[in-house]
Amino acid sequence: MEKLKWASFRNNFLRDITKLSKYTNLEELSVEKNEITNIDCLANLHSLTKLDASANRISQVENGSFKSLMFLCLEKNLIKSLRPFAKISSLLELCKYLYNLDVGDNLITHSFTTFPLKELPKLIILDLTLNAVCKVPNFRLFTIFHLNRLKILNGTGITVKDQAQAKEMYMGKLTIELLGEKIGHFNFKNITELDLRNCKIREIDCLAGGEFRSLRKLNFDNNLLVNIDCFTTLCGLRHLSLNNNKIERLLSVDQVANGKPDDVAKPYLKSLLPNLEELYLGYNSIARISDLGLHRMPQLKILYLQGNKIGRVDGLEQMTNLIELVLDKNQIKQIDPLSFLSLINLRELHIKENRLKTLANFDCLPNLQILFLTNNRIHEMSEIEVSNINVENEIAKKQLYRIGLVIRFPHIMGIDGKEVTNEERQRAHTFYLEQCLIREDPVSKIVANSQNNNIMGSAINPKNTVKITSVVLDGLEMKLSANSGFGVGRP
């Protein structure tokens, strides 16, 4: 009996099979049609290649090391989920030869229960016939896509056409099953933050329900999304990051207040993400800001649009709460008179690496404190008084750029780490007057005299000056302080 290799105990009303564990040479064992509730005791039969335990009362397999098992039949049992298989080291690590798994006619209801089977490298035959999960829409294509090594599913061969259809339907699609697998559970009600960067996601169909009402922060950077249709029901969302996607506009179809498609006769669009405060859309395919419909996000404070194809600054009407705007690395040539008119609370503006030739129409930003203009085509600087200035343009290459800056920014306190002295302010004023005389421009003389009063007043009463905390010219950056020395640093 010790050398027993094959045994069958069918139809014997067996409940306890622990004594079979001592026959370590068994290769094939049939215990079908009994009253067995547990087969964990067979785990030490390392020579076992075929096990038929169908038509019993087994609800799960919790432990084992079915090291040589190739065929496992658990048909007609009480198994509700295949998820416990994920905890069985035998199936995931040792059971490397298993190619046929039959769990038909059990109590399996959810598609995600098949995910643990992805770790079985040799599994090519899977039978889930007569389980409730087979009635789930697109179950077959879902299983074929996620278990891509399968050759036969529920007794039917998998064709090339089946594989192509499965790939077309589920490639890059974030489903509720896949999301649950990634985060390790299916309790979404208390999730406040979700980070799914670099997942090649192109479509999302699992965030529309009320289960995600607590979600506040989403990061889908470096994916393949083309719109945010899937996020529109997330009314509590405050932070949305979609850098490096394929977005041209936020919604595929604009919606009016009653939820119907928009047309010219119905311009009243419904609110979109009403509590959103931060939106990051860098490095997408956006050509027009107006296509984003940002006026439907009344609480938006931070907007990043760097690295797109924007040629004109529009679509920022009603954005009165915006405090930070990033437009670096676009194709902007000029700022129109109405571009920034509504941005009354804007404090920080990044517009580096564009095609700007003038700073006209920047003067409608009353609260602007930080301005970044690196790598534009600016030849002349307009009068804009800001707390931080970042300039790396042709103007910085001129010999008189210090004088020019003092003229344009009469309250500036330091340039390139060197303090602006009263003598330097006077020289700047004198130079400006000389230029006015050359042009014979009497109006400019009046402006110059007024400006001189400001300059000299600043020198006499430094308490009234605006503190310049950072100035960058020609790539040299210095931290400045009104009441202390200068030091090198980053803004």
UniProtKB/TrEMBL annotation:
Pfam entry (one): LRR_4
Alphabetized UniProt keyword annotations: Leucine-rich repeat, Repeat
Entry keyword S-adenosyl-L-methionine: no
Domain of life: Eukaryota
Protein name as annotated: Uncharacterized protein
Organism placement in taxonomy: Eukaryota, Fungi, Fungi incertae sedis, Chytridiomycota, Chytridiomycota incertae sedis
